[in-house]
Design a protein that fits this description.
Layout (H helix, E strand, L loop, with lengths): L2 E2 L11 E4 L7 E6 L2 E7 L5 E3 L4 E3 L73 E2 H4 L24 H8 L1 H7 L2 E4 L2 E4 L5 H14 L17 H20 L15 E3 L34 E2 L14 E2 L11 E3 L4 E3 L28 H11 L2 H5 L17 H4 L3 H17 L3 E2 L2 E2 H10 L6 H12 L15 H15 L2 H8 L73 H4 L14
Antiparallel strand pairs: 1-7, 2-3, 3-4, 5-6, 8-9, 10-13, 11-12, 13-14, 15-16
Helix pairs in contact: 4-9, 5-12
Length: 589
């Protein structure tokens, strides 16, 4: 295979995009401080403009770097004359053998157990050789989900919740991290279990330098179950937002009269993501500045039949820059048509703030907060951040294209949940109060998942509080939440074992077990009497008593001794805790 010989992102001080030579401007590196973070393509029928620094829909005579040919490998001029090293004589065996142990064929050297000789002829050193397959992301050396360690320290806390989550890895992968392509289920490629656990460790246990974090309550004996309820609500919303579609970018899902407005990248459900600034007078400085010249194309698109293309933004407004729409009947883009989205936008200038990550974090305020608490903005201001070289305001799509993407898709979602959902308070609604009420109500109510899903989707907990009705796909969010609570985490069983037991009025008897414990006696035990009397003249059946049913433990029969047969039948209340056991002959007297 042809090879490209160059050093990607060679300028150690450069942060930005760099065309990969020999790809005709179809592929480029995203560089951060001289490090290649990822290999990106603009998408179908798009070319990267190295002059303007954006993806262009027209193939123009760009100054695309040619394929720098690798220098040929030099062939050694002299044939090495080094004689093969004789193998060491094998160690003598304890018992002498009748035949000699040395190699019988002197023309074939015995295998050498040590390192191979290093004085072999080598080619002349030249510039790094990078196969095209590696450059285009086809190399198996790229980081994978399994390469992430999940055993990071837990800051001295007992790892009750983390260990329990790890014990459920198989169920999480089977029921939660599952995506669908035209109704066919498959393991998600974007969202993996090891990356999830690593992000939980950082965002819920270790912390990320803020005075808040994802509420896992790790190490808190009386509240860690609340943390698993919180994680179940988080994952249920992630399922709806991104995992089901296996997408990192928000998809163009809102249509009108069979058409999808390409200006949906500006906002769906009537929203305008570029105008969703942080609160004026308090945190407005955190919002990302809107760059009208920014041009970005999402890396994710829908997988359905005739699904619309990825969201994108580009400069230009007015009649000459109508975004157009996607026609599902013909399966093609109708450009330059004044077809507006719900908010009335017909262009896509400055519309680069669609959702990204597991919760599809949207808007200039949310992305600005991520840049401050996790990214370059905070690092520039002296904060210790997880990604000090990533500027999420200047390059919002880095959320999906970064080499750290496997964990960051989860990390940015945990951040939004902790910062915006958990800290929400309005009209008597409080996160910790609501989660405590849900746990104390035997985990059957819908009020907690409904309220918290509305906060995530609309910014408020009451029905139609934002004027757009119910949160999208609310029934799915509720279904997934209770599925994770019951089938994945089995939290009700934890709740049952963690409740305090009231002091009994009288001594408790032992709880019945699946099989009665045979108590050793000095004399052999007799066979238990069957509950059903045998026919006259027939001996009692020789069989062991059936184990008690786990579904109805309080009504299990017990063997009746001969001395009990004349007594009145005890009430159900008196016998519900009695442990069935065979009656010895010594008990009959």
């Amino acid at each position: 295979m042809a090879q490209l010989c160059f050093t990607p992102c060679e300028d150690r001080d450069y942060t930005g995009n760099e065309v990969i030579p020999g790809t005709k401007c179809l592929w480029y590196h995203y560089c951060v401080a001289g490090e290649p973070m990822n290999i990106v393509t603009c998408g179908a029928r798009l070319w990267y403009n190295p002059v303007g620094g954006y993806c262009d829909s027209q193939e123009i005579s760009y100054d695309c770097p040619a394929d720098p040919s690798c220098p040929p490998t030099l062939v050694p001029t002299d044939i090495p004359t080094i004689e093969p090293t004789l193998a060491p004589t094998p160690a003598p065996t304890p018992t002498p053998s009748e035949k000699p142990t040395m190699n019988q064929n002197p023309s074939i050297p015995a295998p050498y157990p040590g390192p191979q000789p290093t004085n072999m002829p080598t080619a002349t050193k030249h510039s790094p050789s990078i196969p095209i397959a590696t450059e285009l992301g086809l190399s198996t050396n790229n980081p994978t989900a399994n390469s992430y360690s999940t055993d990071s320290p837990t800051s001295g806390l007992a790892t009750i919740a983390i260990d329990y989550i790890k014990s459920k890895k198989g169920l999480i992968e089977r029921f939660v991290l599952v995506s669908y392509n035209r109704g066919i289920a498959y393991p998600s490629n974007q969202y993996t279990i090891n990356a999830l656990i690593q992000s939980i460790q950082v965002m819920g246990v270790n912390g990320f330098g803020a005075d808040f974090q994802f509420s896992l309550w790790e190490g808190t004996v009386d509240k860690w179950v609340h943390g698993l309820v919180n994680l179940a609500a988080f994952l249920a919303n992630c399922k709806v937002e991104s995992i089901d579609d296996d997408t990192c970018d928000e998809l163009n899902w809102q249509k009108f009269e069979g058409k999808y407005a390409l200006s949906n990248s500006c906002g769906q459900e009537g929203r305008s993501y570029e105008d969703e600034n942080c609160v004026l007078g308090t945190t407005e400085f955190l919002s990302c500045d809107v760059d009208r010249n920014m041009q970005v194309t999402a890396v994710s698109r829908g997988t359905g039949v005739r699904a619309p293309p990825p969201l994108k933004c580009r400069r230009g407004t007015g009649e000459e820059n109508y975004a157009g729409y996607w026609d599902t009947s013909s399966g093609r883009v109708v450009p330059d048509a004044p077809f507006a989205n719900v908010a009335g936008r017909t262009d896509i200038e400055g519309c680069c703030w669609w959702g990204r990550g597991a919760l599809l974090t949207r808007g200039v305020c949310n992305m600005g907060k991520i840049n401050y608490f996790l990214g370059k903005r905070g690092a520039d201001l002296g904060r210790t951040t997880l990604y000090p070289n990533l500027d999420f305001c200047q390059y919002p799509e880095v959320s999906c294209t970064s080499a750290n993407g496997a964990t960051f898709r989860w990390t940015m979602a945990f951040f939004e949940w902790a910062e915006r959902v958990q800290r929400y308070q309005a009209n008597g609604w409080n996160f910790e109060t609501q989660i405590s009420q849900f746990v104390s109500s035997d985990m059957t109510s819908d009020s907690f998942i409904v309220g918290i899903s509305r906060i995530l989707s609309q910014g408020c907990h009451e029905f139609d509080c934002s004027g757009i009705g119910e949160a999208r796909m609310m029934n799915k969010r509720k279904k997934y939440f209770h599925m994770i609570i019951n089938d994945v985490f089995d939290l009700k069983s934890l709740l049952a074992t963690s409740k305090p037991i009231a002091k009994p009025d009288r001594p408790l008897t032992r709880q019945p077990t699946m099989r009665p414990t045979m108590r050793p006696t000095m004399r052999p035990t007799m066979q238990p009497v069957s509950m059903v009397a045998p026919p006259a003249g027939m001996p009692a059946p020789q069989q062991q008593p059936n184990p008690p049913s786990m579904e109805n433990q309080n009504t299990n029969p017990r063997p009746v001794a001969q001395s009990d047969q004349s007594a009145s039948t005890p009430s159900k209340t008196e016998n519900q805790n009695v442990n069935p056991r065979p009656v010895s002959q010594g008990d009959q007297s």
